[in-house]
Amino acid sequence: MNLSRSFSSLLLVLGSACVGAEDLVLDVEIPALNVAEYHKPYVAIWIENSKGQHQRNLALWYDHDMRDDEGSKWLKDLRLWWRRSGRQLSMPVDGLSGATRLAGTYELTFSNKSQAIHGLPAGEYQLVVEAAREVGGRELLKLPFQWPAESSIETSQQGSNELGRVKLTVQP
Amino acid sequence: MNIKKLTTLALIAASMGVASEASAHRAWMLPSATVLSGDTAWVTMDGAISNSLFYFEHHPLGLEHLEILDPQGEPLEAQNKASGKYRSVFDAQLTRDGTYTFEIRTNGLFGAYKHKGKNVRWRGGVDEMGEIPAEAEDLRLFEIDRLMQVFVTKGAPTTRTFEAKGVGLEMVPVTHPNDLFVGETSEFQFLVDGDPAANLNVVVIRGGIRYRDQVDEIQLQTDAQGRIFVEWEEPGMYWLEAELEQSGKLLDNAKRRMSYNATLEVLPL
Q1: Is A71 inside a domain boundary?
Q2: Mutating which of B37, B175, B186 best tests the A interface, going by the most A Cβ atoms within 10 A?
Q3: What residues of chain A, 64 to 103, have a C-beta less than 8 Å from chain B?
Q4: Per-residue CA distances from A151 to A50, A172, B64, B198 (Å)
Q5: ipTM metric
Q6: Mean pLDDT per 10-residue run, chain A (172 residues)?
Q7: What is the residue-wise DSSP string for A27-75?
Q8: B7, B23 Cβ separation under 8 angstroms
Q9: Do residues B236 and B182 lie in contact, with contact meaning Cβ atoms separated by under 8 Å?
Q10: Domain spans of chain B, in order of start
């Protein structure tokens, strides 16, 4: 018992030495579109490594509350996410799936204690945001980042169709 | 009965390019989707024999020998089968996650001869050859081994239905056939009677021929292990075909005609 307790404290010390209170803060803009038939887009947000390999899912916005989970029929339209991760998952996923969003800017914060990024090894990554809209188009944005950051670093990309501005802040 | 038999014969003749009936006809199935998500999904399939891909302009595909294997390798019943002037159609309900194989296998003998001044076509097995009259003239016999496949995946891809039967020309996917993307190279292996089919000519054609001047077929040849490597430059539905003619396996005086084709979907990344 003592042994295990000291082991835990050792881990805690090591943990705090490697990683501080890093946060990923993400602003994702869903643009207002002037189209005849508008449906809120399906959006997947995830982290891949520099080789494009899927690492962590951060968010999935889709019609998650339809009868018989009918909304999952269109998840494959998030083409890249579906290939990299979605097709392996059983929907809905706790802590990941959420409703589609109206036009606007949404802030998402992931602390290094959150399930989504806890234990993410130090390295080069890309944040990927993919959006697909019913009777509309699809768009993919990638924002490279270093994890963890030594100082607060901000990067952003401007979408041109299905996504507006996507801003990523990595805080030390 | 006669009509049904004739239809089958015409199909075999057209798709195998038998003797003087040789033509550019292509037999194919076209799925409504190859990558699906959701708890339960439907796929609807067209089947036709045509010149151009993928257009209905000549003959519906016979569905008598259609088999659907679900991801566990169990048979799945096709629903709403129908045959029109130019195409056949059917639906399949996909409840299990994984890869489904839709296939039409044709194995048997095809004969063409003259009898009492008329051209006759015959189809059957070796044990039914007695049906051919002894006084038949210009008898030509062909052993036919033909396989047409389409792969459809709901959820994560699986490979359980890819096992070769060791009869005729078959394709064993190395790259999963529902995981084909522009800019990537896919590998497929071909077998003849279960052994690697070396130096086999394989043709890959993208659909939408009507909207371009050239067929733009990709011509490939298998290596010693029967493998081809295809680099996909454009997304779309592709028709892949290989044909092989050998001397008869069952009959000394027959030629053996084997063919394999599949419709593959390539997605943009």
Answers
A1: yes
A2: B37
A3: 68-70, 72-76, 79-80, 82-83, 86-88
A4: 21, 6, 68, 59
A5: 0.84
A6: 43 43 92 94 97 96 89 95 95 87 96 91 97 96 94 96 97 90
A7: EEEEPP---SS--PPEEEEEEEETTS-EEEEEEEES-TTSGGGGGGGGG
A8: no
A9: no
A10: 2-266
Is residue A55 within 8 A of residue A147, CB to CB? The reply is no
Chain A residues with CB-CB distance to B157 below 8 A? 87
Given this model, what pLDDT does residue B253 score?
84
Ranges of beta strands (E only) in B125-253 are 137-154, 169-173, 185-192, 195-196, 201-206, 218-221, 227-231, 236-247
**Residue at A12 is within a domain:** no
Q: Is the peptide bond before B54 cis (omega within 30 degrees of 0)?
A: yes
Q: How wide is the angle at C-alpha A139 spanned by C-alphas B237 and A86, nearest 5°?
A: 70
Indicate the burial class of A68 (C-beta count within 10 angstroms; 0-12, 13-18, 19 or more): exposed
**What token pair was written down for A32?**
């207002």
User: What residue ranges of chain B have pLDDT lower than 70?
Assistant: 1-24
Strands (E) across B59-117 are located at 59-60, 66-69, 75-76, 79-83, 88-94, 98-115
**A15 in a structural domain:** no
Q: Distance (Å, rounded) from C-alpha B60 to C-alpha B74?
A: 27
Residue A40: domain span: 20-171
**In CATH, what number is assigned to the domain containing residue A68?**
2.60.40
Name every chain A residue with its beta carbon within 8 A of the beta carbon of B267: 79
**Backbone phi, psi, residue B209, to 5°:** -55, -30
Would you state the pLDDT for residue B6? 41
Q: In sequence order, what DSSP letters do the residues of B12-42 get, joined into one string? A: HHHHHT-GGG--S-EEEEEES-SEE-SSSEE
Nearest residue in chain A measured CA to CA from B268 = A79
For residue B223, what are the contacts with CB-CB under 8 A and spacing of at least 6?
B198
pLDDT value of position B24: 61
A128 in B contact zone (CB under 8 Å) = no
- Percent of chain B predicted with pLDDT > 90: 85
Total structural domains within chain A: 1
Tokens 């003239």 — which residue? Answer: B137
Residue A20: its pLDDT value, please? 54
Question: What type of residue is B154?
Answer: K
Residues A74, B37: C-beta atoms closer than 8 Å: yes
Residue B177 and residue B152 in contact, taking contact as beta carbons nearer than 8 Å: no
**Cβ pair B37:A88 closer than 8 A:** no
pLDDT of amino acid B7: 45
* Within a domain: A13: no
